[in-house]
Write a structure and sequence with these properties.
Blueprint (H helix, E strand, L loop, with lengths): L1 H20 L31 H8 L13 E13 L9 E10 L4 E15 L15 H7 L21 E16 L12 E18 L2 E3 L6 E3 L14 H11 L6 E2 L8 E2 L4 E18 L2 E11 L22 E13 L16 H8 L81 H5 L5 E2 L9 H16 L5 E6 L4 H20 L8 E7 L6 E6 L21
Parallel strand pairs: 14-15
Antiparallel strand pairs: 1-2, 1-12, 2-3, 3-4, 4-5, 5-8, 5-10, 6-7, 9-10, 10-11, 11-12, 13-16, 14-16
Length: 565
């Protein structure tokens, strides 16, 4: 009845504590004139110490890409659970362990934890052993186990005369360790706040232990004590099973653990703790559940090793050899952890916060990017070289198209193709031909006969003809075959760099080669013109040659050995 009242009191206190902490949950964050990302505002100066504040200010004005690390709360925790020793003697699983810690984050993943642990490990073998005889005659363990035993006057040099015993122990262990804790489950890409974190830990520390065995009992109220007579334990036939033997041992022993365990003289002894002392290492895993911004529940398992084989007081095999395996401890706990600090100046421990919150929050607040295009020609003002009248087609630089190059854009040119010898033209793009009668060329006007010939476009930095381009060249070839007396000029653009010069040559050469090899047009019908200015670097223009205009149908490549990539 008394225990049930205490339990009710503890549960009630935890419930009240949880309801108090719930008042500072993410649904009621610290009110500040800043946007809240997760549970706090990255832009609020109150969360930064004097060391981080300069970086924070540089970040706020755009001079630095990363915000400062905010001040976060300290965590303290209490825990309790099962403490077991894995050694040469079978352990009793229901042995208690308790502890407390203080923890501080180093970042969103790593943190340091200082932990104190107190455990009581117990064990009881159900199989008999006699290896204790190798400890030495002067050892209290040896003396008390054999004095007043079933065999009086046993010869210390004759192991056959030593009776079997059933090992048991009760060892108190304390440890203080500094641990590195690492968890990554708080870094989440699809949720602002995690409710659970998985973590691993590794640590170093100092441990001390003292143990005793239940080896003696009083004889009929007499002051003199005697070792248990384990020959009374029936371990054959129907009594050979583990359950029956453990029951007999329980009836035989008094559970007073009155005899010290064997101690290794080479291991230091602490007078303060009245036990052996040695450095320890540990490692473990755990999972923590966030109950509120101030409290979490953790389940953890930690393995501790301090290099000794005498935590259970036994290190001898029955054949006289030392046990090859060292003892180690297992510490399985459930704990409550609390975050300490002023919530208006410290955030939750960083291992509970999603480091992506601020970045995602800012991305959501980026306004739509609108690029200005004052003349509405589809080329933004940043790249537009001309304020084009409405409705006029333009090239990639925003310049009005002028097919015949007479200075009048196509959208206003009433004579779209004006022969060169008829230029200059009037405001409507109509040319004047003052040539006296008889001076006109005898051949037909190829510019009129062929009409406007299309441009051929290539992908950037490519010299491959697309299927659309090949179809366009088939149309050009048909016009050339219908006008056998006409030549055309094949023009490629750009010559600012060696790469541009070679690519312009490649484009012109590709067009002429295709018309000759694939469409059967004679090579002498073409005038090769690459590296010109004023056009699209990824396009080739084809126009009718003016009367008297001539040039080579092939030229040497400017940079034939230039690497293609």
């Amino acid at each position: 009845m008394k225990h049930s009242k205490i339990l009710s009191l503890i549960v009630g206190a935890v419930a009240c504590l949880g309801s108090t902490y719930a008042q500072v949950s993410p649904s009621h964050p610290y009110t500040a004139p800043h946007p809240i990302y997760g549970t706090y505002s990255v832009t609020d100066e109150n969360y930064y110490n004097s060391k981080q504040l300069p970086q924070h200010k540089e970040f706020m004005v755009g001079n630095y890409d990363y915000p400062g690390k905010p001040k976060d709360m300290w965590e303290i925790g209490i825990k309790g659970g099962l403490f077991t020793i894995n050694g040469d003697v079978a352990s009793v699983l229901l042995s208690p362990g308790f502890g407390a810690h203080i923890r501080k984050s180093l970042g969103h993943t790593l943190s340091l934890r200082l932990e104190y642990m107190y455990g009581i490990g117990t064990g009881q073998d159900w199989k008999p052993s006699s290896g204790y005889k190798y400890v030495g005659y002067a050892n209290p363990w040896f003396y008390r186990y054999t004095k007043n035993s079933a065999i009086e006057g046993a010869n210390v040099f004759n192991p056959v005369e030593y009776p079997n015993v059933y090992y048991n122990y009760k060892t108190e262990v304390q440890e203080l360790s500094l641990q590195m804790v690492a968890n990554i489950h708080n870094i989440r890409f699809y949720k602002a706040q995690t409710g659970i974190t998985f973590y691993g830990l590794a640590g170093i520390g100092i441990s001390t232990w003292k143990g005793r065995v239940d080896a003696m009992h009083q004889i009929d109220g007499d002051r003199e004590s005697a070792a248990y007579d384990f020959t009374k334990i029936k371990s054959t036939g129907e009594y050979a099973n583990r359950k029956d033997i453990l029951k007999q041992l329980k009836n035989l022993q008094n559970g007073e653990y009155d005899t010290p365990i064997e101690r290794n003289p080479s291991v230091p002894y602490s007078n303060m703790f009245r036990g052996s002392i040695a450095p320890s290492i540990s490692g473990g895993i755990g999972v923590a559940f966030r109950l509120s911004p101030r409290m979490n529940l953790a389940i953890e398992d930690r393995v501790i090793y301090n290099g000794t084989d005498l935590l259970d007081g036994q290190r001898w095999e029955n054949n006289g050899s030392l046990s090859p395996d060292k003892d180690f401890m297992n510490y399985l706990t459930v704990g409550l952890n609390f975050n300490l600090g002023n919530k208006s100046r410290r955030v939750e421990p960083l291992y509970w916060l999603n480091s992506m919150n601020y970045a995602y929050g800012e991305l959501r607040r980026v306004p739509e990017i609108v690029l200005p295009d004052a003349d509405g020609d589809g080329v933004t003002d940043q790249f537009d070289q001309e304020q084009t009248p409405a409705g006029c087609p333009v090239d990639t630089h925003g310049v009005s198209l002028d097919t015949d190059g007479d200075g009048v854009p196509d959208c206003k040119d009433k004579e779209l193709i004006t022969p060169t010898y008829c230029q200059p033209v009037d405001a409507d793009g109509v040319g004047k031909c003052p040539c006296p009668e008889g001076c006109a060329p005898a051949v037909s006007d190829c510019a009129v006969s062929l009409g406007a010939l299309p441009s051929i476009h290539f992908a950037p930095n490519s010299n491959k003809l697309s299927s659309d381009a090949a179809a366009t060249l088939a149309v050009v070839a048909a016009k050339l075959k219908a006008n056998p007396n006409c030549k055309v000029v094949v023009v490629g653009y750009c010559a600012a760099t060696k790469r541009q010069q070679q690519l312009s040559w490649d484009h012109v050469n590709k067009v002429i080669s295709h018309l000759v090899e694939k469409e059967g047009v004679s090579s002498d019908r073409f005038i090769f013109s690459s590296g010109q200015e004023g056009g699209d670097c990824d396009a080739v223009d084809i126009r009718a040659a003016a009367p008297g205009e001539d040039g080579p149908n092939q030229v040497a490549p400017p940079h034939p050995n230039l690497r293609k990539n």
